[in-house]
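Subject: Re: docking follow-up (flavin-adenine dinucleotide)

Dear J.,

Thanks for your patience while I sorted out the input files. As discussed at Tuesday's group meeting, I've set up the holo structure prediction with flavin-adenine dinucleotide included as the bound ligand rather than trying to dock it afterwards. The sequence and the ligand SMILES I used are pasted below, so you can double-check that they match what you have on your end before we go further.
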Amino acid sequence: MSRVVVIGGGAAGMMAAVSAAECGNRVTLLEKNEKLGKKIYITGKGRCNFTNACDREEFFDKIVTNPRFLYSAFHTFSNEDAMAFFENRGMPVKVERGNRAFPVSDHASDVTKVLSDEMKRLGVTVRLRCEVSGIETVPYRGTGKKDTWNAAVSGVRLSHGETVPADVIIVATGGLSYPSTGSTGDGYRFAEKAGHTVTKRSPSLVSLSAQEPFCSELMGLTLRNVGVRFVKQDETLYEDFGELLFTHKGVSGPVVLSATGKVSGRLTGSRLLINLKPALSEEQLDARLVREFTGGASKQLRTILGALVPSAMADFVLKQAGIEPTVRGAEVTRQMRASLSSALRNFTLTITGLGGYQEAVVTKGGVAVTEINPKTMESKLVRGLRFAGELLDVDGLTGGFNLQIAWSTGYLAGRIKEQEAKAMSINIAIDGPAGAGKSTIAKAVAKRLGYIYVDTGAMYRTIALYLLRKGIKADDTEAIGKAGREAEVSIDYVNGEQQVLLFGENVSGLIRTEEVGNMASASSVNKDIRDKMADLQRELARTKNVVMDGRDIGTNVLPNAQVKVYLTASVEVRAMRRVKEYEQKGIRADYEQVAKDIEERDYRDMHREHAPLCRAGDAVLLDTSDMTIEEVEDAMIRIIEEKLSAKQ
Ligand SMILES: Cc1cc2nc3c(=O)[nH]c(=O)nc-3n(C[C@H](O)[C@H](O)[C@H](O)COP(=O)(O)OP(=O)(O)OC[C@H]3O[C@@H](n4cnc5c(N)ncnc54)[C@H](O)[C@@H]3O)c2cc1C
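The structure tokens for the complex came back this morning:
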């Protein structure tokens, strides 16, 4: 089980959290807004066109940027999977014109509710009003030739200072469009900081501004079934047929959005030619005009034209044709008719620019897909870092394709398998004699790295508590071995603190007594108990980044740990430290006696039959006799970074 942190509670993030939790991971989703899916609420004009029911080929036709990168993601979680996912979770689905899929209720909130309920069911921890300010990594030492990682994630930093440890981080912070929904581009910064390339971004699926002032007079007018052609220096940039809408400063509507989706960067400075009568050929249109003018010989052209185009447009069409609107039908010359036909077929606007992110449906550009594994969504640079959704350099046209990108990439990013987690774990083993400050240092280092501190002493004390509860004497070796084998000890973590459970009972608060300590000292030499505890400790280290301290961690428990440190200090220094500790607790202690006890303990630990204390051949020796705690901590971090960055 990995600790997975998802950044962003939008479409991609929620789906990633569901998918990761389904895979048995412990998932936390962090969202800076006060609620989940703020953007989903406004999609499809509040109805959420959550996918498109087209076939696979058409789907990839509608993906404008890097469609091939999405093959695996779509294969793993297709549009059909998305529809089934929502339907199976109590949200009936309908398919409308253009294969657009919506919830039958027409409520976008139903989509968010399904995901939010599913996260709850799967035990995902959702933290709202929780803004991530950065991603923390540690140097990574690869284990194979194919490894391209030079760092591994260790946790995320929140803006209020807290660190949330993580084995896997899924960044799903969206793009830059509609920043009021929370998509303010934070993920690009995280990606760049981690060494990723972020391609140039621009608003896409967005309205266009035009030079012609009449647009504001036509504002709100929708032209259905018109042909559009964007032309620049005789080159046709984009051609389409469909619906167009006039806005106060230009044009919008499906055909315009699609044009920006396809060729946004080149549209500024182009001419938009609108064919108001695309169903008629030039000859048919001319014949139609002749008919209209003959029938309305005494009527003004602006009135006659009202039968062919929306009446609000008539004067502007005539102006582009160079004809006075008051001219009567009977007065129209052949040349005038040709000019009018041309204006109807090529009603022209001059495009001056694209709308901003405030009104763009999506962001074009983003985290470069060449640096991401398309089969896992994992970074090729930082182990355990994954990306999903709109912040990737992928985008599609309108019609449900962008949300499908979020579902597919989110779902795939969440497929974190046990095997991957296993290969990912980093183990730091700290051994040394009693009183060398191992547990204090191990705890501090684990906190700084965002790793788990495994308190092995607490495990032995838990067994000792069981032995005491059973009334077993410290010298009854046989009874200790038997009871040790039957004791059921397990570990849990609450707020990053290790808890020890004895037959499911949390006994963390009961094991710190002297009586338990003495029993632990006597019973921990027992082979059965040591083997059992070592198995439990190895199991923890198999899937998690851990810092573990003890006497045989580097030699016996985790012989393959990436970093091993042998922490020691002179007997005199250790004795002084121990005396001070006693004094702080108000206990008077005799220095000579304490030093003698330490010497005896060292001898016992080094000469015991099973897994005696000794420095592993590849352990770094750190003598702390003349060092402060802070100096030891810094030295440890340096050793760890050096060891982890030393690639094979
Ligand atoms: C008006 C509008 C209508 C649309 N309609 C449709 C449609 O009908 N069909 C369709 O397919 N697509 C539609 N889209 C596009 C679609 O909504 C997006 O492509 C999709 O929602 C992107 O999902 P995402 O999860 O990647 O990002 P987002 O939905 O943007 O989610 C990102 C989340 O991350 C959070 N976040 C960001 N930074 C941090 C941080 N530092 N810490 C914590 N949390 C953070 C944000 O608050 C946000 O909740 C529409 C878009 C708009 C703007």
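A couple of observations from a first look. The chain has a mean pLDDT of 92. The chain is about 40% helix and 25% strand.

Let me know if you'd like me to rerun anything.

Best regards,
T.
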